[in-house]
Predict the structure.
Amino acid sequence: MSASISAPAEVITHVHLESPDARRARLATGWLIIVVGVVLFALSFSAGATATFALSDAFDTVQLPSIALPAGPVVVITALLCLAAGAGLVSGRLSRTWRRVANTVAGLSVVLGFLSWAASSSTLPFPVSNQLAGTVALATPLILGSLAGVVGERSGVVNVAIEGQFLNAAFSAAVVGSVTHSIPAALFAGVLAAVLTGMLLALFAIKYLVDQVVLGVVINLLSSGLTGFLFDQLVQPNSSTLNSSPIMTAIPLGPLADIPLLGPVLFDQTILVYLAVISVAVVWFLLFKTRWGLRVRAVGEHPKAADTVGISVTAVRWQAVLVGAIFAGLGGAFFTVGSTGTFVKDITVGNGFIALAALIMGRWHPVYAALMGLFFGFVTQMASQLQTLSTPVPSQFLLLLPYVATIIAVAGLIGRTRAPAADGQPYVK
Amino acid sequence: MSTAERTAGRSAFAEYVSRHWRDWAITVAAFVLAMLIGAILMVVADPQVSANFAYLFTAPQLALGGAWAKVSSAYGALVVGAVGSPQALALTSSKAAPLICAGLGVGLAFRAGLFNIGAQGQAIWGALTAAYIGFTFELPYGLHLVLAVLGGMAAGAVWGGIVGWLKAKTGAHEVIVTIMMNYIASGMLAYLLTTAAFRRPGREDPISPEVHPTAALPSIFGQFHFGFILALAAAAGVWWLLERSTTGFSIRAVGANPNAASTAGMSVAATTTITMTCAGALAGLAGIQFALGPSANGAPVPLTLGLVGTVGFDAITVALLGRSRPVGIVLAGLLFGGLDAGGLAMQSVAQTPLTLTMVLQAVVVLFVAAPALVATILPFLKGRKLKPAAALTGGQA
């Protein structure tokens, strides 16, 4: 897919040596952080008196106090922290560890500074627990979807059809859940639907050598049409029997769930959220610690070499696409049985594409892709929270942040994103 | 007799037929297979009809008759709604015009080896700008329309050009960038519709004021309007650009082999940027059709969130079916425009949801994309060479 992004030759890096690529990325990141710092500094003049953050909502058993921060000074301090971190990165005198520290400090400062500024314009407190809960709910399908992409693309099959897999899975889960009143059956149906969609993808991409991006777009169209047609014709007229699935209930993990603030967010969730977290570890283990994963990566980087040593490129790619589809199915089921239990047309509203973005931003690595999914979930939730607080910045712009960030990432401004070498290239023996 | 003599002895038409008959046959076969799949889907999704299939062996006339009634009434309504009357033909033309424009945008990019998934965003910018010019300014007839059309095309060109420039400058993959640009465009539209400049006075929902009649595309007969002529002119322009101009030669050369084109002294970066800018302008023209084309009541539809629908994605299917050739795209646009127009009739007359046409489009393109699959199902279409990717995107990409 990104064959045009040329890979520079391997360079042996010593402490004092830096490849031109890494240097460019470091400078670009540093300057970007400096610009953000300047913007934050400018914003500090328009900040209100206090920014209030509510740590508990009214229904929590343990009530934590709300935190009131002096908005002006907080924004100024975060701006200065950003400027310092950016200057440190640009100077090039930081060691590897300190560079990481600088990046982390800058990231946290931006979030805290921006939130303080936004929250200070409203008298209502910013609900931190809602923010965290919403992040988890929005990120779960993104994480599962991006894992589907990671497994497929590591084997060299581009998956633009995550959106279609989501839709088919969401639809099947809702209908089967409504008919059987069983969550496991609904989840199974969702996974099955996504695997069937994956089979379509694999058949046309691997056997019939159709351009994989074209194929992904067409499969998305087909899925939208198919679920839309079945919904209009069959499901909507009988919505009480076919579109009222039971929804998953939260499973508290013992005493961990009673920890204030973090307990309900991390340890009192539905099975799909736990599965998403486990899946990240599973995919990481599969790809990097098993013989199968090595084969998948070999086939995705250099199929001819893999074929020469006796690995069946076709078989490995089929397996990778179908294994990936399992995760996409779980993610798709989350839209229906994981939330309201009912399907509406195009319920996934482009989440498949955001999952694709998370996968690219996460550099085709399961853990980073999951972190990017969390980040996108966080930003999206923040945008809707700020909308209810009616803050000065139009929340529509915040909603666009994941997309802008992805463009910046693929344009190589922040680090280099390199796809598996044979990503998107059909293999003909 | 040498090859050259033999070729010279044939007419151009015979030459064309001998080279392309399989393409046509596969397209027709794909369409027939898609209609079959659509028919199966209709029968399965209708409980009253599919229930009769329990008696398939005891009372076949009941099961098959019911199915036949259902399918024939739906497809009958589809055909009548698409070509059955002058009004239907006018509706088909108005549905086809934006598909042709955006399809040209996608197809032109294909010829340069670029995959423009961003026609959606480019069309949104085209519609947004044209509508803004249309409802904000008070200008005389003629001038107003020209300004609105040029403004919309320019906006689309900029939105597409950014992608080409990024690709040329940094190697950012155009597929990812255009997908993201689509979302940014629709986000910007959602934002702009909340601002005073775009929102209709006295309304809380995101809807713009009505476009002044001076900026509307003039109607020729009902919904058959000047925009369709513009679409045909755009197709002719793209044909000229690709087949008769130096730029077009660069576009095709870069699409066929960027390294060879670069060695021959062409600038791949410049060609990429120019191609995406032109593609954006064409998709912008598609957006203009939605913003300025007369609706059933004669006046253009005001700007809303969903005004351009999914034209950018439908355009991909149009470009693929049209093999990225201007004439092919016009024919494919008319076909899918007819499906859209007929789908509306099918929905109201035969109570078969419009979404069926989406399934038909996707299945047609899937089959066209995989000629080997069609040849497996219908062995008489088997030929010597069945190049999948080349068959789709006009020999390149």
